[in-house]
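Lab notebook, bench 4. Still working through the backlog of constructs that have no structural model yet. Next entry is a single chain of 162 residues. Request: give me the structure tokens for it.
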Amino acid sequence: MEDIFEYAKKMELDGIEMYTKQAAKTKLPGIKKVLMVLIEEEQKHYEIFDAMQKNGEFNVTKIFSLDNVKNVFQQMKDSGEGFDASGDEIAFYKKALEIEQKSEAFYRAQAMNQVDPAKKEALNSIADEEHRHGIFMDNMVHFLSQPKHWVENAEFNHMQDY
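Model written out:
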């Protein structure tokens, strides 16, 4: 396999592209706002991997917080936004959920293969971020599928800080 950091950077760039395209398509302001946050998150991940590759810096801090995202879901529910989401939009979030889950699994597997504790910790921290993204995507699928009946996923509502 090519350099782990090069591969990880490509994965993050692919995520940026995917979320950017979806943000351009959506007509729902709350969803667009959340997609912009995800774009920023993927960019931060890219920058972390770039620093790791270039100079061995493994400083990973908590990046993604679900607090603001939970508020956006509630605002969308209260305003009725999401009631007209298309099947294509729901399919996108199902695919994004799958990608986030695969990313988490990839980073965890790579962390297990590391002998350097700092690299291991950094990769596990990014995997934790991808896990939180997956929780968000799962909630997005449920919200867009049944916005009138959406109830926060227990994991989403009671998330521990990693």
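Notes after review: DSSP finds six helices and no strands in the chain. Confidence is low (pLDDT under 50) at residues 156-162. Flag for follow-up if needed.
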